[in-house]
From TrEMBL:
Domain Acyl-CoA dehydrogenase/oxidase C-terminal: 229-375
GO CC aspect terms: cytoplasm
Start and end residues of each Acyl-CoA dehydrogenase/oxidase N-terminal domain: 4-118
PROSITE patterns the record matches: ACYL_COA_DH_1, ACYL_COA_DH_2
Protein name in UniProt: Acyl-CoA dehydrogenase
GO biological process: fatty acid beta-oxidation using acyl-CoA dehydrogenase
């Protein structure tokens, strides 16, 4: 991928933001289990960083997805994964379908303030019994006059405790599973919307995550994004941007783990020599860096296909799969080289070890990525649920 001076300028803006507005507070936010999301999002909105590839008519920059990828990559330099995750939810998980298929009225009501940092969004897809199996969700929205009445629940929803709206996937008919779903924007102050206490997660501790309950929640049908029954298709399209964002966000996070480990191994002495002089260690670090470069190339190629209007599903799924597995490999190896210090809870490599584990689960588990790749390779039975 060829980057321009404009890409470089954006990269610097995001890097400076991470260094000044995120990293000095990560330890505090991790301990608290939350960060001041509305204050931080407003600062991001003021810089245009919540609408990089969104339409200019609604406050976005109107740039192509390569600029968003650059921002995701630089956010990987944050000293915690939870804050970048929350930002990615806003930019690449709960707003892509709205920006592409939403009515002008919905874009002005929800997208414009999300871009400005005035409203926080979340994506309501996963349920207790339907995580990666999106077709299996049970939340339903039945028509009542000009409204929908929504009942159900959503699980593991990042940003939800502070969110102003949910981009909710719900069953709106009795049609087959891939044709009966719609995306509906639900303001969180609507009667009948409630939340569980914060979920106690292994990693991503600074991001707020909860279960959402919907009990006879009434919203107007005009809050539906696009045509009824097209929600599954739209969500699959949103997943592609989410997966590319997630892969890009991992790249510099893993490089930072490697760099910190190199520094530590240059300082730590055992058996009369510094650790970095051990051939196994410096060969292994070189091998891991090579793998990160391979992930970068794969992610960039997927982005190029996406920008060109081609179907990037295969490469985006591969990048997502590779990011999750490589994330585990790099952080595990680096933690081992830190020895007992690596096992300490507040060690940055230990934190990365916990945070990156989500990449193989969220946005479609590794097994789902493998299924998609196999299908596109023609080595999976074609008979599926309609």
């Amino acid at each position: 991928m060829k980057f321009t001076p404009e890409h470089d300028a954006l990269r610097k803006t995001v890097r400076d933001f991470v260094e000044k507005e995120i990293n000095p507070y990560c330890d505090e936010w991790e301990a608290a289990g939350e960060f001041p999301i509305k204050d931080l999002f407003k600062k991001l909105g003021n810089l245009g960083l919540l609408g990089i590839q969104k339409p200019e008519a609604y406050g976005g920059m109107g740039l192509d997805y390569s600029y968003n990828l650059v921002a995701a990559e630089e956010l990987g330099l944050a000293l915690c994964g939870g804050v970048p995750l929350a930002i990615g939810v806003q930019t690449d998980m709960c707003t892509p379908a709205l920006a592409r298929f939403g009515s002008d009225e919905l874009k002005r009501e929800f997208l414009a303030p999300a871009i400005a940092g005035d409203r926080v969004g979340c994506i309501g897809v996963s349920e207790v019994d339907a995580g990666s199996d999106v077709a299996g969700i049970r939340t339903n929205a039945r028509k009542d006059g000009d409204d929908y009445i929504i009942n159900g629940s959503k699980m593991w929803i990042t940003n939800s405790p502070k969110a102003d709206f949910i981009c909710l996937l719900a069953n709106t008919s009795d049609d087959k599973p891939h044709r009966n779903k719609s995306l509906i924007l639900v303001p969180t102050d609507t009667p009948g919307v409630s939340f569980s206490p914060h979920l106690n997660k292994l990693g991503m501790r600074s991001s707020e995550t909860a279960q959402i309950f919907l009990d006879d929640v009434r919203v107007p049908q005009r809050n539906r994004i696009g045509a009824e029954g097209t929600g599954f298709m739209m969500q699959m399209m949103q997943f592609q941007e989410e997966r590319m964002w997630g892969a890009a966000n991992v790249i510099k996070a893993l490089e930072a783990c490697i760099d910190r480990t190199i520094t530590y191994c240059r300082e730590r002495r055992t058996f009369g020599q510094v650790l970095i002089d051990n051939q196994y260690i410096h060969f292994r670090l070189a091998e891991l860096q090579t793998e990160v470069e391979a992930l970068r190339a794969l992610t960039y190629q997927a982005c190029e296909q996406h920008i060109a209007g081609q179907d990037a599903t295969r490469l985006a799924s591969m990048a997502k799969l590779k990011a999750g597995r490589l994330g585990r490999e790099v952080t595990d190896a680096c933690l081992q080289f830190w020895g007992g210090n690596g096992y300490m809870w507040d060690n940055p490599v230990s934190r990365a070890f916990r945070d990156v584990r989500l990449v193989s689960i969220g946005g479609g588990a590794d097994e789902i990525m493998l299924g998609i790749i196999c299908k596109l390779m023609g080595i999976l039975p074609s008979k599926r649920r309609d």
